[in-house]
């Protein structure tokens, strides 16, 4: 493909579409830019520049003097089957194996893909993932049943696609779920009501957003990281507002917002069942390809074991660091395999399992609903940062082992071609015969110009006569 002539306008549209798709897959902006640079180089356009933000992508092709710029705003969100198809296309584009026009058609097909499962199956999947997570957070039979029912309710509500309703949807579902939990809590032993609420609301928790924001800030992407961090905190605030509003309607006291310790009603193997249910629920609800289920389950098991070991040895606050550090190399290794799964497809469920957003929701609800202040909310933010740090260190270790040490950053500014000066060769190069500007090179003589037919020959005397006088 690099040997063929590629229309720059079509290539720009193709790269914009790839970047927009990776944004819809909730990829970090630094990884999107690195991928797009690799794609541009595979098509012989190393002079392409990219600016990637969470909602805006800018692409410039050719040099500054004759460059063309295209801007695209983003806002879509992909399911797991769309993410898998997208990253297959991205890998082909990195190798330059896709015609840009065909790639645009494939991107449009990915965007219009129908879910692999019917709405009833996807609703059942959401109920399963909520039930599985409840076994890890509030392990009681009654809590398991309540989480399953509320998860099914939210799964049905998520079938409604409306940009206007999406703004108030988190508040609505948080209020409805909290209202049901607070009303039945005095009569049914559901365990900790606040932690139980996390299970059905898990797909609304901005755990991945907060972790990605921290990773982007650590990578120097200040605009993207700060804006994504603010968005995640606003999402948490909306969910906490819905829970507190329901508590106000029911008339619960402030002690109901304080999380309780787990009762230990279930045996230790119930956690394994919870992880399995969570994996099956993700597979069904997000229409993941069948070939990726085993990889997602493997990453979830590694993340949970790492977090459990972290809780036992260093405490629950930074246990997410151990879980993220353990699962990140596994995620990247799976993505590098020929029959593996894209990194985002396995990262997102693992983020939800590590529940950084859940810790933030519990901490923010307790901070606003009680008199304890923001101590628990700060603890929750610490857990989010520990998970992000684990992802960063895990990624660095994997790249170091497989690619060797690389420079962290490069700084270079291209000078316009008209002002570029030829660099003088080093002194040792002048000593070697045959090299430019060598001491051993014969003096270069201009070839004699032959006169045109019928024109008088230019002799030395005539040349001296035609030369201008310097007197």
**Total individual domains:** 2
What is the alpha-carbon Rg in Å? 30 Å
Structural class, from helix and strand content? mainly alpha
Shape: globular
SS element count, helices: 18
What percent of residues are in strands? Answer: under 5%
Keywords: Membrane, Transmembrane, Transmembrane helix
Domain Threonine/serine exporter-like N-terminal: 14-246
Region (Disordered): 439-471
Family: Belongs to the ThrE exporter (TC 2.A.79) family.
Description:
The protein has 471 residues and is mainly α. It has two domains: 104 residues, no CATH class; 285 residues, no CATH class. It has 18 helices and three strands. Strands 1-2-3 form a three-stranded antiparallel sheet, covered by helices on one side. Helix 9 crosses helix 15 and helix 10 crosses helix 15. InterPro entries: ThrE-like_N, ThrE/Ser_Exporter.
Characteristic key phrases:
471 residues, mainly alpha, 2 domains, 18 helices, disordered C terminus, transmembrane, membrane, transmembrane helix, ThrE-like_N
List the topology elements:
Blueprint: H1 8-24, H2 29-42, E1 49-52, E2 56-61, E3 68-73, H3 80-94, H4 100-111, H5 119-137, H6 141-157, H7 163-184, H8 193-198, H9 207-218, H10 222-250, H11 270-285, H12 293-313, H13 319-336, H14 343-354, H15 356-369, H16 375-403, H17 427-430, H18 460-466
Antiparallel strand pairs: 1-2, 2-3
Helix pairs in contact: 1-2, 1-3, 1-4, 3-4, 5-6, 5-11, 7-10, 9-10, 9-15, 9-16, 10-15, 11-12, 12-13, 12-14, 13-14, 13-16, 15-16
GO molecular function: transmembrane transporter activity
Transmembrane segments: 143-160, 167-190, 196-217, 229-246, 266-286, 293-312, 318-335, 347-365, 377-398
Keywords: Membrane, Transmembrane, Transmembrane helix
């Amino acid at each position: 493909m690099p040997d063929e002539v590629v229309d720059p306008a079509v290539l720009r549209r193709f790269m914009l579409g790839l970047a927009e798709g990776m944004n819809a897959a909730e990829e970090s902006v630094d990884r999107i830019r690195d991928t797009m640079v690799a794609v541009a180089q595979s098509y012989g356009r190393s002079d392409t520049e990219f600016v990637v933000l969470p909602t805006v992508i800018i692409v410039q092709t050719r040099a500054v003097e004759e460059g063309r710029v295209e801007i695209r705003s983003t806002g879509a969100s992909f399911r797991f089957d769309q993410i898998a198809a997208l990253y297959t296309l991205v890998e082909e584009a990195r190798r330059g194996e896709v015609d840009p026009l065909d790639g645009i058609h494939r991107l449009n097909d990915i965007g219009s893909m129908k879910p692999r499962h019917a709405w009833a199956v996807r609703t059942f999947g959401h109920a399963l993932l909520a039930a599985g997570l409840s076994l890890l957070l509030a392990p009681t039979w009654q809590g398991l049943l309540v989480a399953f029912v509320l998860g099914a309710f939210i799964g049905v509500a998520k079938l409604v696609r409306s940009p206007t309703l999406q703004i108030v949807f988190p508040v609505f579902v948080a209020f409805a779920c909290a209202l049901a939990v607070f009303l039945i809590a005095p009569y049914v032993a559901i365990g900790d009501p606040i932690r139980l609420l996390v299970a059905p609301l898990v797909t609304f928790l901005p755990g991945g957003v907060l972790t990605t924001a921290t990773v982007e800030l650590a990578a120097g992407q200040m605009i993207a990281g700060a804006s994504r961090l603010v968005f995640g905190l606003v999402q948490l605030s909306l969910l906490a507002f819905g829970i507190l509003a329901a508590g106000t309607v029911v008339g619960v006291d402030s002690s109901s917002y304080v999380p309780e310790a787990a009762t230990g009603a279930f045996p230790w193997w119930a956690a394994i069942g919870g992880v399995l249910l969570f994996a099956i629920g993700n597979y069904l609800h997000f229409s993941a390809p069948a070939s990726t289920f085993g990889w997602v389950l493997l990453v979830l098991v590694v993340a949970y074991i790492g977090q459990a070991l972290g809780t036992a040895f260093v405490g629950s606050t930074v246990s997410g660091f151990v879980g993220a550090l353990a699962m990140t190399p596994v995620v990247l290794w799976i993505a590098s395999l020929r029959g593996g799964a894209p990194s985002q497809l396995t990262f997102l469920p693992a983020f939800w399992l590590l529940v950084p957003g859940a810790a933030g929701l519990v901490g923010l609800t307790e901070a606003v609903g009680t008199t304890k202040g923001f101590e628990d909310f700060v603890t929750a933010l610490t857990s989010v940062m520990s998970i992000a740090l684990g992802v960063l260190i895990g990624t660095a270790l994997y790249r170091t082992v497989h690619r060797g040490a690389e420079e962290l950053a490069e700084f270079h500014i291209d000078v316009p071609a008209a002002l570029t000066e030829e660099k003088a060769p080093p002194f040792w190069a002048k000593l070697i015969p045959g090299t430019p500007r060598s001491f051993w090179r014969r003096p270069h003589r201009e070839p004699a110009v032959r006169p045109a037919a019928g024109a008088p020959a230019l002799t030395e005397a005539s040349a001296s006569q035609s030369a201008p006088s310097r007197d």
